[in-house]
Amino acid sequence: MIEFVPLPLIDDFLINYNVGQALLLLFVLSVLAAIPLGSRKVLSLNAITFGLVFILTPASLAPLHYKFLGIALLVVAPLLYITARR
Predict the structure, then answer these.
(1) CA distances from 3 to 6, 50, 61 (A)
(2) What are the DUF8006 domain coordinates in residue numbering (predicted)?
């Protein structure tokens, strides 16, 4: 029986890119998925979560500018959450 194991696919993807680029792709896809919901609170919670992920990613896996992106998300996203009505 042949089983589908996605690990080699993920490994082949990450060989060409660093982890910061993969996280940025996931962030963009999650923002695009949250836009149809029409909720700025969901978008801001998503941005807060990815801001933490960008900051907590070790420097050996992602370049320094992704940490700055995480700091920017952690500054802007709570402001977006506070100003959101729904």
Answers:
(1) 10, 32, 30
(2) 5-86
DSSP letter for each residue of 25-69: HHHHHHHHHHGGGT-HHHHHHHHHHHHHHHHHS-TTTS-HHHHHH
The predicted structure's pLDDT at residue 86: 65
In a domain, residue 19? The reply is yes
State the pTM of this model. 0.81
CA gap 81, 86 in Å, rounded:
9
Q: Is the pLDDT of residue 79 over 90?
A: yes
Task: State the Cα–Cα distance between residues 19 and 49, nearest whole angstrom.
Answer: 16
Which residue is it, tokens 């589908």? Answer: 4
Nearest to 67 by CA among 52, 78, 81: 52
Q: Which two tokens stand for residue 60?
A: 């050996």
Number of domains making up the chain: 1
